[in-house]
């Protein structure tokens, strides 16, 4: 029998029709969809024993307590620690998804020299050459760490300079540091004792300071109450997440925060609503009204409300002396519920060194914000765990990522009390990853070791006999068995917290009303994140969930 | 015979003959597809893989006094499930060879003495995007192990591990019936199986219950 073309077509049609009544197309469709979920380049969690380790988040200076769920030694989930004295279990979306960061496509895994692959030996040779030719500068983004002391030591030994790039929350405290003569790292906000918090654009409920500190406070003492014991007044042009939840939202024209502060100060002085003497702002109430878009009566009412609900503290998102002066007038500097002196710990020292134009090299630590560009023609060595793009640095050097480096965390910029925590390296980075301190140690073997510096700091804490260590349970340092035990607790994810801050010891003199007004910029939880790299889950968490405290949960 | 008669008996060239021939070819195609789809496809789709050694649950239950599943598959006090026991658990009894079988040689010499973990192929391994708590299902839900895993704990021979060539998952996830019809209650561990069990028990967990 001859098989014709018609037979082939009919047979094929029969096969096609028959296949519909078999599992073939349906099973293949399902399996193919699963196959696409398992591309070889998608990182899969390893299979192995599951354990939970407690540590401290190092992604920003807040140092939130984290509980890391690990499978076969790899982090697969991050959650908050309810016993942490500041965060009380809260985390920002970035920390919740931080386990994804080390596998981010923009993770730096090779040394790059002006966009091309290079080696650590090349980078070391180039830095050594620069050191031999002239002075170098080390730039640190988070002063006060053990690594900072290594940088300082290197700068001191190699005729270099140690420079600090302060974050916006630290910069916001600079005017008080200047007026009182106290280092900025010794100042903090005593929000727990404040009755009114006046925020000039600071995102207090959206990532400002330590996530959880103010949100818990607000949840407990303000959320859902008509006459709350804690009044949050948000002065901001747009209805931000913080403004939407504030007790009162005062919409002002963009960039008119200083004018409103001057107007409020005028009312406080004219109506004798404050006993603190201070300079009279040069701006009249009518001018303030024109600039802010508020009526004179609205400004008067706001000033009276603030004065009637003291202790009141004014918070700015960045350095803004023209607004910060309000705190001096309100008597909030050095007072309970205001700007307080949180301790005597060493100030972030800077070694000025030579002028920037004579520098041969600038080494930038991974903690420095990505957009920082040194004002120098020197060769720039930029450490970073993630490539934020458009780098102007000559050398991009891959630094340890999330949980890949032993580091310590001094007090968070806005905290009212001193804290100290240690984040151990739960992961071991590959040989292609090096921190700035490891890089410098290869050049100068006599530099202090991070391990030893941390050990010495724990001994110092133990000898001080002050404060409490919050680990599995809270233990006063005075009752600690030994410095070694204290260090073990801190390495296990505990946090040391000093006793309550002292107040009334911050003499602040203001000779004339400052006119140096910076434009306030609202900051959210991602603003302080050095490179503009986010784990995929972080954006989803932020957009599709509400990681802020809702009124219904305030009793939790 | 019937097919031959159907095909050859009629006189060639007539219209009825052509129609009948065409019909026969079409039906043959269908028959071919049905045979290939139901009988050949499952054998091609799954590849059989060997476990590192033969393991008999029944032997361990009867001879070693490991009568219950949680003798080796432990749910810890904090709810974490040990899953397949690690080599150190096996080493608790098998520090030295306890028999003369080939499996005993492999266990002791190739793995325990060398401190290596056995690369077991897990029949019920779920995708990485699934969060499943044994503690919740057994303690709070009161489910017996057999309700999901069948009577494998009483088996006296090693089951063949079959892996889907495309998805890479074990055949136990889809179930042994390729049509998923007339299955045993524990046959299949797909999301729809979880959903139907939850629906039957009126326990709603939503998407994030498992896909956290």
Plain-language structure description:
The complex is a heterodimer of chains A (556) and B (212). Chain A has 556 residues and is of the alpha/beta class. Chain A has a domain at 169-342 and 503-525: Dimethylsulfoxide Reductase, domain 2. Chain A is 31% helix and 16% strand. Chain A is built from 17 helices and 21 strands. In chain A, the strands form five sheets. Chain A has a seven-stranded mixed beta sheet, covered by helices on one side. Chain A has a five-stranded antiparallel beta sheet with strand order 17-18-21-19-20. In chain A, helix 10 (257-270) runs antiparallel to helix 11 and helix 10 (257-270) crosses helix 12 (296-308). The A-B interface holds A 1, 6-7, 10-19, 21-24, 27-28, 30-32, 34-35, 37-38, 44-45, 47, 49-50 and B 7, 21-22, 25-34, 36-38, 41-42, 45, 80, 82, 86, 122, 125, 127-129, 164, 166-169, 174, 178-179.
Q: Which fold name corresponds to the CATH topology of the domain at 169-342 and 503-525 in chain A?
A: Dimethylsulfoxide Reductase, domain 2
Assign a percent range to the helix content of chain B: 40-55%
Helix- and strand-based class of chain B?
Answer: mainly alpha
The succession of helices and strands of chain B, N to C, reads HHEHHHHHEHHH
Intertermini distance of chain B: 61 Å
Task: Give the number of helices of chain B.
Answer: 10
What's the Cα radius of gyration of chain A? Answer: 28 Å
Q: Specify Rg of chain B, calculated over alpha carbons.
A: 25 Å
Which CATH first-tier class of the domain at 169-342 and 503-525 in chain A would you pick? Alpha Beta
Q: Largest sheet of chain B, described in full?
A: 2 strands, antiparallel
Individual helix count of chain A: 17
Task: Give me the side-by-side strand order of the main sheet of chain A.
Answer: 5-4-16-15-14-6-7
Q: Tell me the β content of chain A.
A: 15-25%
């Amino acid at each position: 029998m001859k098989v014709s073309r018609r037979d082939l077509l009919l047979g094929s049609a029969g096969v096609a029709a028959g296949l519909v009544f078999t599992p073939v197309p349906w099973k293949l469709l399902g399996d193919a969809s699963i196959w696409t979920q398992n591309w070889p380049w998608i990182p899969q969690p390893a299979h192995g024993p599951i354990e939970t380790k407690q540590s401290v988040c190092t992604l920003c200076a807040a140092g939130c307590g984290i509980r890391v769920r690990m499978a076969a030694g790899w982090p697969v989930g991050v959650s908050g620690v309810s016993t942490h004295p500041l965060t009380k279990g809260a985390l920002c979306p970035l920390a919740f998804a931080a386990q994804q960061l080390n596998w981010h496509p923009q993770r730096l895994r090779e040394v790059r020299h002006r966009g091309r692959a290079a080696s650590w030996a090349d980078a070391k040779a180039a830095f050594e050459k620069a050191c031999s030719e002239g002075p170098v500068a080390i730039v640190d983004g988070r002063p006060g760490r053990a690594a900072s002391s290594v940088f300082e030591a290197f700068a001191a030994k190699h005729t270099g300079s140690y420079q600090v790039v302060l974050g916006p929350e630290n910069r916001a405290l600079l005017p008080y540091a200047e007026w009182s003569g106290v280092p900025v790292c010794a100042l903090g906000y005593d929000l727990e004792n404040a009755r009114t918090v006046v925020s000039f654009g600071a995102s207090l409920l959206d990532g400002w300071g330590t996530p959880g500190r103010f949100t818990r406070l607000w949840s407990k003492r303000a959320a859902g109450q008509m006459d709350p014991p804690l009044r949050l007044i948000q002065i901001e042009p747009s209805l931000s997440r913080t403004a939407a939840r504030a007790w009162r939202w005062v919409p002002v024209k963009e960039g008119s925060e200083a004018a409103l502060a001057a107007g409020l100060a005028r009312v406080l002085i004219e109506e004798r609503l404050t006993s603190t003497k201070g300079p009279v702002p040069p701006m009249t109430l009518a001018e303030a009204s024109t600039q802010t878009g508020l009526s004179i009566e609205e400004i008067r009412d706001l000033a009276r409300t603030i004065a009637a609900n003291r202790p009141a503290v004014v918070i700015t998102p960045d350095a803004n002396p023209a607004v910060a002066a309000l705190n001096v007038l309100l008597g909030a500097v050095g007072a309970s519920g205001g700007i307080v002196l949180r301790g005597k710990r060493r100030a972030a020292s800077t070694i000025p060194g030579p002028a920037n134009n004579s520098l041969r090299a600038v080494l930038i630590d991974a903690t420095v914000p990505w957009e920082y560009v040194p004002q120098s023609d020197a060769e720039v060595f930029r450490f970073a765990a993630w490539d934020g793009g458009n780098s102007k640095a000559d050398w991009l050097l891959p630094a340890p990522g999330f949980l890949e480096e032993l580091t310590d965390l001094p007090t968070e910029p806005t905290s009212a009390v001193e804290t100290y925590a240690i984040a151990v390296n739960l992961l071991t980075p590959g040989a292609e990853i090096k921190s700035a301190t490891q890089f410098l140690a290869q050049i100068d073997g006599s530099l202090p070791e991070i391990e030893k510096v941390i050990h010495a700091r724990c001994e110092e804490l133990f000898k001080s006999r002050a404060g409490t260590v919050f680990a599995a349970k809270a233990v006063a340092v005075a009752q600690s068995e030994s410095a070694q035990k204290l260090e073990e607790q801190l390495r296990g994810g505990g946090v040391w917290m000093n006793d309550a801050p002292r107040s009334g010891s911050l003499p602040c003199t203001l000779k004339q009303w400052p006119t140096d007004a910076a434009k306030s910029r609202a900051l959210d939880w991602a603003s302080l994140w050095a490179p503009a790299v986010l784990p995929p889950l972080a954006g989803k968490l932020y957009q599709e969930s509400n990681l802020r405290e809702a009124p219904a949960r305030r009793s939790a | 015979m019937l097919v031959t008669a159907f095909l050859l008996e009629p006189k060639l060239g007539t219209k009825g003959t052509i129609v009948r021939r065409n019909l026969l070819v079409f039906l043959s195609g269908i028959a071919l597809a049905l045979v290939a789809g139901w009988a050949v496809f499952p054998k091609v789709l799954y590849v059989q893989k060997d476990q590192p050694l033969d393991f008999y649950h029944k032997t361990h239950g009867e001879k070693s006094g490991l009568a219950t599943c949680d003798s080796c598959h432990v749910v810890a006090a904090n709810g974490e499930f040990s899953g397949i026991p690690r080599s150190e658990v096996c080493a608790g009894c098998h520090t030295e060879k306890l028999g003369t079988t080939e499996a005993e040689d492999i266990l002791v010499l190739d793995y325990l003495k060398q401190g290596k973990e056995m690369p077991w192929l897990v029949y019920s391994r779920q995708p990485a995007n699934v969060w499943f708590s044994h503690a919740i299902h057994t303690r709070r839900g009161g489910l017996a192990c057999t309700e999901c895993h069948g009577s494998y704990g009483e088996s006296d021979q090693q089951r063949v591990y079959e892996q889907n060539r495309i998805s890479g998952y074990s055949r136990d996830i889809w179930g042994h019936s390729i049509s998923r019809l007339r299955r045993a209650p524990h046959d299949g561990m797909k999301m729809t199986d979880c959903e139907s069990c939850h629906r039957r028990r009126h326990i709603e967990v939503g998407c994030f219950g498992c896909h956290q």
